[in-house]
Amino acid sequence: MVNLKVTLGVVNYTNYIHVTASKVSTPSVVVWEDWIDVPITNLNFVIPNLDVENYYIRYYDAATNVAVGTLVLELLVNALTGDTISERRFYLCGGSNPSDPIDGANVITDSYLVGKDISGVFKEGFRYLRPTDEYVTDNVLGTVTIVNGTTLSTAEVLIVEITYKVSSTSTPTITGGLYNGNLNITESTRTLLSSEVQKRLRCVGSVSTQVITLPLLAVVPEDIGFYFDNSCGGVAIQVRILTNGADRINYNGFMTSSNLFSEFWVSKGEKLLLKKITNGGQSYWEVIDEYKGVDVGSRMASGYELQAGWHSEDNTISNAADYPRLWWWINNVLSASRVITDDIVMATGIRPLGKDGLFVKNTAGTQFRWPNGQNISERGLKDFNNFGSDTDRLYDYPGGVQLDAVKSHKHEGAVGTLLTLLFGRGKVIRNIGQYGGTGSGFTDLTSDVVDTAGNAIASSENRVKNIGVVYMRKI
């Protein structure tokens, strides 16, 4: 099945355009129809779920949105490629359209005929007219003139047939390289045509989300595909690439139970090459070349808060639609024990004790909060293979917090003077307990920083010399 994209320019119809689609093999059977209110300018619409055949697309001038109307135009279209092979235009003598001739005329003037290859003229109640002997055309002026002395009468119809050259686009081929030509994708939603394969698709939409649907694999030649490029100035942070129907993208890079995907993603600054590959009688879209999204969800320490392809762990809220790849990872890779689902936490930003480093999502599945890695240092979990076994940690999973526990001392008397001489005033002393036990003159405090008198100074944490970083997540 294919979706046929059709474009209409400026149309001078009276009330409604009645559009129908019929297979050439069964021209009297309408498989799709619709009524479009006029006037219109540059209308794009899609005729969905057509078999891979040639179709007659007919346009009628209808008085209402249920009337059949008067046939004005008939196109012969290849549904596989979207090419118009030929068309027939119907001119009613005495009709209401500007290009309809008047009674007694022998000339039709229509700007639509300028530059067209007219292959035949048929007169109602007569036959096809012979070229040159009975009619002549001028594709500069857009005229058809009957030259054998015959004129047209009121209510009589003249049919002009136009033929198009389509050999250059009917069979897409590859001539080398990743792509042949460029195509700007500006729409927020777009279904690609099979005739658009082997293009570099510049994702340059002007809104925050962009969704592009692939054509059916059945109408795409083997080892042919699309090269998506989201580094050209589009607004969307991540562009969603959807498959058509039951088609799937084959990618074995996410360590999931299945390597078949109904959607894929291209983040800002990334490129993605998809091609049709058949193996064992089954066809898939496959990811060709290195995919930068393989590390989605990973964590790093950065010296820059706006690193491309990453987002800081700042506890802020984001829309799932803006980060579809990360949202997929949160829901399909992370277990429930590593994500908080709570609307109150989403609203307040106040997390359950010990869960600062976890993602939070709302129950509606439309928004999430980033982890809060601010002002917290890293430490490896006690057991990487058995999470939950460390009772000394508030939440023993990646992202779970372990509170600080400081065992510090102050020193007094002669021993204190000695340690001050050894370590200096205002210095941090490590393992101070080794210098004495019971009765040694040391007392547990909340710090191990020595003041100028040799006594410990109270502080809130056991701190080493450090540099500031921004913890970030790969989107």
Mean pLDDT score, rounded? 86
For the secondary structure, the number of strands is: 34
What is the molecular shape?
A: elongated
Q: Quote the distance from N terminus to C terminus.
A: 34 Å
* Major sheet: 7 strands, antiparallel
Strand content: 25-35%
Please state how the strands of the largest beta sheet are arranged side by side. Answer: 3-2-5-6-7-12-9
Low-confidence stretches: 167-175, 426-448
Helix/strand class: mainly beta
Number of helices: 4
From the alpha carbons, calculate the radius of gyration and give it in angstroms: 36 Å
Helix proportion: under 10%
Could you walk me through the main structural features you see in this protein, from its secondary elements to its overall organization?
There is one protein chain. By secondary structure, this protein is mainly β. Helices cover 6% and strands 35% of the residues. The protein is built from 4 helices and 34 strands. The strands form 9 sheets. It has a 7-stranded antiparallel sheet, with no helix packed on it. The radius of gyration is 36 Å and the shape is elongated. It starts with a strand and ends with a strand. Residues 167-175 and 426-448 have low confidence and may be disordered.
